[in-house]
Design a protein that fits this description.
mainly alpha; binds fe (ii) ion; elongated; 90% helix; single chain
Length: 69
């Protein structure tokens, strides 16, 4: 369920950013980008819970992050 929620939130980020790129109205563009940023926070919230509840995912995530240094 957490992964599906993350996918939904990431999809929302893409949709709002695409909409922002399509409008010529600067006020609407700013609102859409603000909403996209809120959706990114939602992604982070679900990802945090996933890392807290899925030890295998946490280990893979940590190993990958350390290997990238
Ligand atoms: Fe959301």
């Amino acid at each position: 369920m957490l992964r599906a929620a993350m996918i939904a939130e990431l999809d929302a980020v893409n949709i709002y950013e695409q909409m922002a790129n399509l409008t010529k109205n600067e006020k609407i563009r700013k609102i859409l980008l603000d909403i996209a940023r809120e959706e990114k926070i939602h992604v982070a919230m679900f990802e945090t819970v996933l890392l807290q509840t899925d030890r295998e995912f946490l280990k893979i995530y940590a190993d990958y992050a350390l290997a990238r240094r």
